[in-house]
Amino acid sequence: MDNFEGIIEFVSVAESQGFSASAKQLGCSTSHVSRQISKLEKRLGCALFARTTRLVSLTPIGLNYYHQCRDLVTGLHQANEQVTTQQLTLVGTLRISAAGTFAEQQVAPALMQFALLHPELSIEIDFNSRNVNLVEDGIDFAIRYGKLEDSGLVARKLQAHPMMAVASKGYIEQYGEPKNPNSLKNHSCIIANNDHWLFEHDGQPQNIKVQGRWKSNNAHAVVNACEHGLGIAYMPQHNFLPSVERGDLVSVLKDYWHSDSHSWVVYQNRRFLPMRARMAIDYLVENLSKP
């Protein structure tokens, strides 16, 4: 049995590319992971990792060894999960990163229902707009919006979010209504996530750089600023509909709104994902894939 000691830690370090990240994944100390790897390397009589002050990478021998060990560890995890699945009990802590109105109004309530179905499961949601590192921050999955970067993560589509441009009646009376996206260069715009707004017309995209006096990554603050007449705002429709229905805001540039924006659930591209994360992701996709 001594021959298997350190294998799980080795595979974890290889996949997370760091001792600290591996320790977070395994729920142990960094020193424990380091000791296990050192014992394994001593037992095998070779170096499995090349270590620098900032990077941990597999040696050629370590890479070959990883390919063999990965299947062993995956098989062990899957065997354990099958037993747990048969008991229909999810335990442990599910950690999610999310931000925005959609996450607050739809993702969080859906996860509350999921928690009620699994009373022994703990859920932690970090509402932060920063682009977290799932491995280093110990996040099971994240909710993201818009165009995704090629990060190597697995992405599953949750819901479409057509865009909408709005302004207050007072702003339009004072500064006029923009006739097309290019005319936004002469207007004050309320900036949410970025200062490049994507429109479309006759199937052709139009990317417009805007500027203004108010910028916030909080949708509620953007809506309030727009209602106070600070400029034109452009976000997914669901943020503005209550204000439009009350008459506090009016739509502009309707013929140019971009319709192909989506929210996503993203997670690590690895063969083994904890069952609690897999089931939660499937639950969100099933319940939130339609408006």
From TrEMBL:
The keyword Transcription applies. PROSITE patterns: HTH_LYSR (PS50931). SUPFAM superfamilies: Periplasmic binding protein-like II, Winged helix' DNA-binding domain. The keyword Flavoprotein does not apply. Residues 10-59 form the HTH lysR-type domain. InterPro entries: LysR-type_TF_proteobact-type (IPR058163), LysR_HTH_N (IPR000847), LysR_subst-bd (IPR005119), WH-like_DNA-bd_sf (IPR036388), WH_DNA-bd_sf (IPR036390). One of its GO terms (molecular function) is DNA-binding transcription factor activity. Pfam families: HTH_1, LysR_substrate. GO terms for biological process: DNA-templated transcription. Signal peptide: none annotated. Belongs to the LysR transcriptional regulatory family. This is LysR family transcriptional regulator. It comes from Leucothrix arctica.
